[in-house]
């Protein structure tokens, strides 16, 4: 609902100026800038932790985050904001990537976004988890993945540090692929996925799960 026609009240159309008035109002609602979304998967973490607070990054995970931070810095871009999941492994990854953290959110927490098709034998959450997590992750998609606001004059570069399931679901939704196929993709720890959202709402996937900046012995998918 970010098409210009959806943002104006056609009932208030000026009858005297007619189409000229409508064209002016439509132009005022059109996005002008491009959003660059960098979706970062958290680094390797302690799988033995019973609670979220115990699932901290491993020493290798901290190395991975350093490498990801260095890669982002090497792009020479002025990042406008970093938004990160409130789960421990994501917040610790973000702390290493950047010392300035504008915001964090519960919407980007890991979960089961939608029942995968085809199903997998090794991972079968209860049906209720899809309903609970799916609504939250869909809310994250709608809240964060959209064309720029009409008031935004310059292109923006934004970092989101979150989780593999969330990223895979967001990529499917953004590209208008069946979201049930999210589990067919695999993402390494500390990987970078780059989405571009044009002013007209078109989305392009520049990179998916890039870890080419890491030495082979530092790459994991846990």
From TrEMBL:
Its main location: mitochondrion. Pfam families: His_Phos_1. It is found in: Mitochondrion outer membrane. InterPro entries: His_Pase_superF_clade-1, His_PPase_superfam, Mito_Ser/Thr_phosphatase. PANTHER family: PHOSPHOGLYCERATE MUTASE-RELATED (PTHR20935), SERINE_THREONINE-PROTEIN PHOSPHATASE PGAM5, MITOCHONDRIAL (PTHR20935:SF0). Belongs to the phosphoglycerate mutase family. BPG-dependent PGAM subfamily. This is Serine/threonine-protein phosphatase PGAM5, mitochondrial. It comes from Podargus strigoides. The gene is Pgam5.
């Amino acid at each position: 609902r970010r098409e210009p026609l959806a943002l104006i009240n056609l009932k208030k159309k000026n009858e005297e100026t007619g189409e000229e008035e409508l064209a002016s109002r439509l132009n005022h609602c059109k996005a002008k800038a491009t959003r660059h979304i960098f979706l970062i998967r958290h680094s390797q973490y302690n799988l033995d932790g019973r609670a979220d607070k115990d699932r901290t990054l491993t020493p290798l995970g901290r190395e991975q985050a350093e490498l990801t931070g260095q890669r982002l810095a090497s792009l020479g871009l002025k990042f406008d904001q970093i938004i990160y999941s409130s789960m421990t492994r994501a917040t610790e990854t973000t702390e290493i990537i950047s010392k300035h953290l504008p915001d964090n959110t519960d919407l980007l927490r890991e979960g089961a976004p939608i029942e995968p098709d085809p199903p997998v034998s090794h991972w079968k959450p209860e049906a209720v988890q899809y309903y609970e997590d799916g609504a939250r992750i869909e809310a994250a998609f709608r809240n964060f993945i959209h064309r720029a606001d009409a008031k935004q004059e310059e292109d923006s570069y934004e970092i989101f540090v979150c989780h593999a399931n969330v990223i895979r679901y967001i990529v499917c939704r953004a590209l208008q692929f069946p979201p049930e196929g999210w589990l067919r993709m695999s993402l390494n720890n500390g990987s970078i996925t780059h989405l571009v959202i044009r002013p007209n709402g078109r989305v392009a996937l520049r990179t998916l799960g890039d870890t080419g900046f890491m030495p082979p012995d530092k790459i994991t998918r846990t």
